[in-house]
Write a structure and sequence with these properties.
Elements: E1 5-8, H1 16-26, E2 33-38, H2 43-54, E3 57-64, E4 67-73
Parallel strand pairs: 1-2
Antiparallel strand pairs: 2-4, 3-4
GO molecular function, one term: transferase activity
Protein name: Sulfurtransferase TusA family protein
Family: Belongs to the sulfur carrier protein TusA family.
């Protein structure tokens, strides 16, 4: 899946991954796809909850070894 922006928060724990994707989203155009990479297993629950709260679309989540990867499309 080809994302317009990649946010890598590997090694950081909650709430850093969500804070970083929120910061990235603020400067993007609606419809932009963002790939968020994290080693924090909490992302599996946190990212869908954040998308529900913000109206952004969670396109996909997957686990790649020790990494959790989520793709989010900016609402608008």
């Amino acid at each position: 899946m080809e994302a317009g922006v990649r946010v890598d928060t590997s090694g950081a724990l909650c709430p850093v991954p969500i804070l970083e994707i929120a910061k990235a989203m603020r400067r993007l155009e609606p419809g932009t796809l963002v790939e968020l990479v994290s080693t924090d297993r909490g992302l599996e629950a946190d990212l869908p909850a954040w998308c529900d709260a913000t109206g952004n679309e969670l396109v996909r989540m997957e686990r790649r070894g020790a990494h959790y990867v989520g793709w989010v499309r900016k609402a608008g």
